[in-house]
Amino acid sequence: MRTRTVRTLIYLAAGLGLIVSIFAALEFYEASLRSLCSINAFFSCSTVDTSGRTTTLWIPDYLWGIGGFLLTLAFAGVAESRPRDRRWTYALLGLTSLGVGLSLYFVYVELALIGAFCVVCATAYVFGGIAWGGALALATRPPRGSEPTVHRRRPRPSAPAEDEPVALEED
Q: Which tens digit of pLDDT belongs to each residue from 14-70?
């Protein structure tokens, strides 16, 4: 996949993840929105939202998503504007890796501790995973301009070069 395509995928995943995270925040405060993703007792945003287990390190889980996706967009933009400085690409990979790790923790809390699964949250987790995959693809590519140079041998001219001795014929 071309670098431009991978970068577009990261921007798209982070942008959509941000929208989903904002919806999760609205859903937390507006009870009528919870019914949009409450399918049954297990697939229920309402059960997750009202469980009392939706904060991590005293920060609401939806804020982790909003902040993480905003940072992902910012890091991706800086990494794109400075393609020769690989540190930003690696920082983007580190950030998205932390996001995937946090998402896995959220899935554990939902499934093991709450016993319900938030569909909106899962959508944000998927977008975070896509952004991580794109960051991984960028980080594992060789840096721009580091492609190996192919040296081809030039064919030898039929006439001798200036520095080569010329054999003289004797009569």
A: 999 999 999 999 988 888 887 788 889 899 988 998 898 988 999 999 999 999 999
Question: What's the pLDDT tens digit per position in 73-115?
Answer: 999 999 999 988 899 999 999 999 999 999 999 999 999 999 9
CATH topology of domain 3-139: de novo design (two linked rop proteins) (1.20.1440)
Max CA separation in the chain (angstroms): 111
Q: Of all residues in the chain, what percent are helix, strand and coil, respectively (each to 5)?
A: 65, 5, 30
**Cα–Cα dist 31/35, whole Å:** 8
Q: Which two tokens stand for residue 47?
A: 């059960």
Structure tokens at 141: 């590519």
Lookup: tokens for 11 = 């921007």
**Distance between CA 71 and CA 67 in Å, rounded?**
6
Helical residues (DSSP H) of the chain, grouped into ranges:
3-29, 31-34, 45-49, 61-81, 86-108, 119-139
In this prediction the pTM is 0.80
Residue owning tokens 């991590």: 56
Contact 96, 73 (CB under 8 A): no
